[in-house]
Amino acid sequence: MEPKKARSLLDQRVVSKTGKLFGRVADIIFEAKSGELVHIVLKDATDYARKLNLERDEKGRYLLPFSAVEAMEDFLIINEEDII
């Protein structure tokens, strides 16, 4: 994947490789010491995303592991197998 600024990912749609919509990027959580991107915080989570057993933050927002991201273009494509 080509490097992008995290800010450019905000509000992008998050979809699976099979085309299932999860919501939009509200924020990105990273490890301060290493700079590693850890989670995508979802906003406008879809019914499909809410039915999955996803981790949630202290505000109740749904989290997707950043390791599930396969591509970043006009939207983020995730590998659903990496989160279920």
Which fold name is given in CATH as the topology?
Answer: SH3 type barrels
Indicate the percent of residues in helices.
under 10%
The whole-angstrom Rg is 12 Å
For the secondary structure, the number of strands is 7
CATH class wording: Mainly Beta
Mean pLDDT: 90
Strand order of the largest sheet: 4-5-3-2-1-7-6
Strand proportion: 35-45%
CATH architectural grouping: Roll
What series of H and E elements makes up the topology?
A: EEEHEEEE
CATH superfamily: PRC-barrel domain
Can you describe this structure?
6% of the residues lie in helices and 40% in strands. The protein has one domain: PRC-barrel domain (SH3 type barrels), CATH 2.30.30.240. The two termini are 23 Å apart. Strand 1 (13-16) and strand 2 form a beta hairpin. The mean pLDDT is 90. It has 84 residues and is mainly β. It has a seven-stranded mixed β-sheet. The chain has one helix at 47-51, and strands at 13-16, 21-30, 37-43, 55-56, 62-65, 69-72, 76-78. The protein is globular, with a radius of gyration of 12 Å.
Please outline what is shown here.
With 84 residues, this protein is mostly beta strands. It has one helix at residues 47-51, and strands at residues 13-16, 21-30, 37-43, 55-56, 62-65, 69-72, 76-78.
